Amino acid sequence: MDLKTLYREVILDHYKTPRNTTPLSAPSCEADCRNPSCGDKVRVQLKLDDGLVSEVAIIGNGCAISQASASMMTEAVKGRRVAEIEAVMEEFRRMVMGAGSEADREVLGDLMILEGIARLHARVKCAMCGWSALDAALNENGSDVNLDEDTELPASSQH
Ligand code: ZN
Fold first, then answer.
1. How far is 142 from 30, CA to CA, in rounded Å?
2. How far is ligand 1, taken at its centre, from the CA of residue 66, in Å?
3. Taking the domain 3-143, which CATH number applies?
4. Distance, CA 49 to ligand 1 centroid (Å)?
5. What does pLDDT average to over the chain?
């Protein structure tokens, strides 16, 4: 099995069996993200304990990339400090938006599997949907993000 096939298998596995999908009964914060151009929706719920994400849940539907990326996101944030998560979010955004310089493998770990998204401009918003909801949950609790109104993503992914 070559690496590309392995990556595709991992993405399909997360899509078919997304992790952390049991809604939290009392989340500390949450936010929704919609990506209307593809029909993706992801709600992220977080339980924060002393600056640490002790529990995370995603409730969503949409394409394989959006749901797999959100599922992988939950595994990347669970049990970690908010400050660390902010660094992972920033590095992930840089990677899928194809910021040019090499992505930091140490920060991203398994998320490197989604590196190829940077070459599929139409799918960048799909990959960012769960992450945008995560960002909003942490920084603007209760907000709804609409990626069609987000001018930051399409502009940067064109270059
Ligand atoms: Zn999508």
1. 6
2. 5
3. 3.90.1010.10
4. 32
5. 91
Centre of ligand 1 to C-alpha 12, Å, is 14
Mean pLDDT of 64-89: 97
pLDDT surpassing 90 at residue 152: no
Q: Report the C-alpha dihedral over residues 8, 12, 15, 21, rounded to 10 degrees.
A: -100
| CA 13 vs CA 17, 64, 67, 72: distances in Å | 6, 10, 10, 10
* Tokens representing residue 89 in the block: 């979010």
Element (H, E) at 53: strand 52-61
Least confident of 10-14, 26-30, 97-101, 124-128: 97-101
Ligand 1 centroid to Cα of residue 60, in Å, is: 11
CA of 41 relative to ligand 1 center, distance in Å: 9
pLDDT band at 120 (very low <50, low <70, confident <90, very high): confident
- Domain map (residue ranges) of the chain: 3-143
